[in-house]
Amino acid sequence: MELKQSHSVRLNDGHLMPMLGFGTYAPDHTPKSKAGEATKVAIDVGFRHIDAAFFYQNEEELGKVIREKIADGTVKREDIFYTTKLWTTFFRPELVRPALERSLKKLQLDYVDLFIIHNPLAMKSGEELLPKDASGNIIFDTVDLRDTREALEKCKDAGLTKSIGVSNFNRKLLELILNQPGLKYKPTCNQVECHPYLNQSKLLEFCKSRDIVLVAYSALASHRDPNWMDPDSPHLLEEPTLKSIAKKHNRSPGQVALCYQLQRGVVVLAKSFSEKRIKENFQVFDFELTPEDMQAIDGLNRNFRYAKLQLQTEKHIFPKSGRQ
């Protein structure tokens, strides 16, 4: 993993990804305009890596802000690293490119910088984001992830995205892709939940060994959407160890949690819709944690997940009758 220019990492396909990204997900009750307003602040503060997704349903607002910031001279298009994600109802290969084209149309941009598989849970195709049966259970689909990924390669070849990657993949799923016959492009990154209570050290080690960048979401665990998180979950930023280290460096616990990831070589996403917090989250490149600090934070790992994603089963990953 090679660091280049203004705190960026060079991906295995040669493109640069800024190490610090701005997350744009918000729960349903938050107006979509808030994501646009926050992204505008983030770009003005200095964020150049914008992490979004079709599932977030706010790409029109984000595209408008990005185009405004280009028009007023704050940034050029090539300064912005924009990520979107393939939602799980579009895993059938013939649906992949139209899904990306739909995002590009909403954004009114010619390309995205990164297009990733949002998670390995293939769901029933259609317009419903979360298709459910009469009992309220998610309706899954059986799609070979390797076929889906090949369709992402074609999007890269067509110039619709600069890079491709995955999200929420474990080592077994990454190996499924990496061992795929005829693999043209390795995933550049794997975006997963990662924070001091879930430091993903083994997955990070594996990704580094394969030149895949680990990208951390829920890095501050401050977003407590009851749809995805148990409200009784511990508050990471109230963790005494983080507060103690923060006090020593005259920083906030959030800044310490972000710096921890950066020093491990993890690209980290920080999400906030508060102007004060957005500014604070960007101020993480001008101090350094000591080896003792890093060891103390490593010691907080308890393999605790905030995001309560339904676990994928083998039969949903690829058909038994399909390719082996």
From TrEMBL:
Site (Lowers pKa of active site Tyr): 85
Catalytically driven reaction(s): 5alpha-androstane-3beta,17beta-diol + NADP(+) = 17beta-hydroxy-5alpha-androstan-3-one + NADPH + H(+); 17beta-estradiol + NAD(+) = estrone + NADH + H(+); 17beta-estradiol + NADP(+) = estrone + NADPH + H(+); (20S)-hydroxypregn-4-en-3-one + NAD(+) = progesterone + NADH + H(+)
Residues covered by the NADP-dependent oxidoreductase domain: 20-301
Keyword Coiled coil tagged: no
GO annotation, biological process: alcohol metabolic process; hormone metabolic process; monocarboxylic acid metabolic process; steroid metabolic process
Active site: 56 (proton donor)
UniProt keywords, alphabetically: Cytoplasm, Lipid metabolism, NADP, Oxidoreductase
Pathway in which the depicted protein is active: Steroid metabolism
InterPro entries: AKR (IPR020471), AKR1C (IPR044482), Aldo/ket_reductase_CS (IPR018170), NAD(P)_OxRdtase_dom_sf (IPR036812), NADP_OxRdtase_dom (IPR023210)
Binding site residues for substrate: 118
Chief subcellular location: cytoplasm
Molecular functions (GO terms): 3-alpha-hydroxysteroid 3-dehydrogenase [NAD(P)+] activity; 5-alpha-androstane-3-beta,17-beta-diol dehydrogenase (NADP+) activity; estradiol 17-beta-dehydrogenase [NAD(P)+] activity
Location relative to the cell: Cytoplasm, Cytosol
Listed GO CC annotations: cytosol
Top-rank taxon: Eukaryota
Family: Belongs to the aldo/keto reductase family.
Quaternary state and interactors: Monomer.
Protein name: NADP-dependent oxidoreductase domain-containing protein
